[in-house]
Amino acid sequence: MRIDIITVLPELLQSPFEASILKRAIDKGLVAVHTHNLRDFSTNRYRQIDDYQFGGGAGMVMMVEPIDKCITMLKSEREYDEIIYMTPDGDTLSQGIANELSLKENIIILCGHYKGVDQRVRDHFITREISIGDFVLSGGELAAAVLCDAVIRLLPGVLGNETSALTDSFQDNLLAPPIYTRPADYKGWKVPEILTSGNTPKIEQWRETEALKRTQQRRPDLLE
Asked: pTM (2 decimals)?
């Protein structure tokens, strides 16, 4: 998989890809992540990429031309399955969306800033708009990093145990059940006996029951 991220602040995206699972995935050649500074595609010597909005109003707007130039350059080098715009009014990121995107080969992610991008960008280039929640960030970089993490960890070979992702919360519209590790008894706080019984069918049944119970308590909307 290849992910190209268009950003005004590429330095914000350095740290997430220099540690942990994401770095391991890059080092193993399972994914390539490239950032592109939108100011490199500005049309004037001030490297301007934003301007006042027509009709007046507070806040600057990202201009269409630099974004057009960047996306056109990338598309001249390869075909892209999705061109994603990170925006608060997009579809809320879900495990299902992450699963779907993990099957793609080439993706562009555009990070918004200021009041957002010229609507013509959304009308003519963007194939998908994604939000990570009902709140506004200073820019789309952190949201893009969240999306990348959710997608990349699903690629075959990224996690040490490939079945691990299959038991994550939301994979089957249920929250994950409680989990425990050693010691089995700590300060009198004991692990449920079923988990130390070695009876795999009973353990799986317990986990399913607990997952359903937790979902009913915390996210009943997932069961609707």
From this structure: 0.89
